[in-house]
């Protein structure tokens, strides 16, 4: 169990460091319009690549969840024991916090990295209303996070099914997370992962922390929904 929990800590650390790190440090590098800045497309791809590489590196040890909503969804689908959900969630959150701290320390090393904690999506945090990158309200944010997390679980469960082509699951899962970010960065700055949201919110100020509840409730609900849907449709 210690090895599995260690793998989940490292994998979640890598997910947040790669995905959120790219958003904080590289999305607007050199200012808006600079061709070196990776923008929305680059950040979306970074999240997908971290899951893809992390799953190949660590999936055979822990299952490669890196996300409490995934652990809960797998439990709902009958593919993960209830006793392991809480320990997984704890180390996932700790891994996300550790990555957020590293990103924050790197960001303070350059005067060119300016983080306005009052701006939407500050420090790659998630939000709705005034803290949504596109100004989307709470209902839109909730619906977006529930539906996209549910679809993420359906992809994960299908790609890792014993009847699916062997060895390709991390590719499908990574591409699914890329697509999810392409859809939802304007809406919530994309969570679908309570650990990722918690780690960044701790360094993003009171606004992000006050809205963090939604980025636990919606992804967990979506994870359960996706797990139950897949459980119902598989033959």
From TrEMBL:
PROSITE patterns: MIP (PS00221), PROKAR_LIPOPROTEIN (PS51257). It is found in: Cell membrane. InterPro entries: Aquaporin-like, Aquaporin_transptr, MIP, MIP_CS. The keyword Transmembrane applies. Keywords: Cell membrane, Membrane, Transmembrane, Transmembrane helix, Transport. It is a multi-pass membrane protein. The chain crosses the membrane at residues 36-58, 85-103, 138-159, 166-188, 208-229. The keyword Transmembrane applies. Belongs to the MIP/aquaporin (TC 1.A.8) family. This is Aquaporin Z. It comes from Lysobacter arenosi. The lineage of its organism: Bacteria, Pseudomonadati, Pseudomonadota, Gammaproteobacteria, Lysobacterales.
């Amino acid at each position: 169990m210690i090895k599995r929990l260690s793998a989940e800590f490292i994998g979640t650390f890598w997910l947040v460091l790669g995905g959120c790190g790219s958003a904080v440090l590289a999305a607007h590098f050199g200012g808006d319009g600079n061709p070196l800045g990776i923008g929305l497309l680059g950040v979306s791809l970074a999240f997908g690549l971290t899951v893809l590489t992390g799953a190949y590196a660590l999936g055979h040890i822990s299952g490669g969840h890196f996300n409490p909503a995934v652990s809960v969804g797998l439990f709902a689908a009958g593919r993960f024991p209830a006793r392991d959900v809480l320990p997984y969630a704890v180390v996932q959150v700790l891994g996300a916090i550790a990555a957020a701290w590293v990103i924050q320390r790197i960001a303070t090393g350059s005067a060119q990295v300016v983080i306005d904690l009052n701006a939407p999506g500050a420090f790659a945090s998630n939000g709705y209303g005034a803290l949504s990158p596109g100004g989307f309200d709470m209902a839109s944010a909730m619906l977006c996070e529930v539906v996209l997390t549910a679809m993420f679980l359906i992809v994960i469960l299908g790609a890792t099914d014993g009847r699916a082509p062997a060895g390709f699951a991390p590719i499908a899962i990574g591409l699914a997370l890329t697509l999810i970010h392409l859809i939802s960065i304007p809406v919530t700055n994309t969570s679908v992962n309570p650990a990722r949201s918690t780690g960044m919110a701790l360094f993003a100020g009171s606004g992000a922390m006050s809205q963090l509840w939604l980025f636990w409730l919606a992804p967990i609900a979506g994870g359960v929904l996706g797990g139950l849907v897949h459980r119902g449709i598989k033959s």
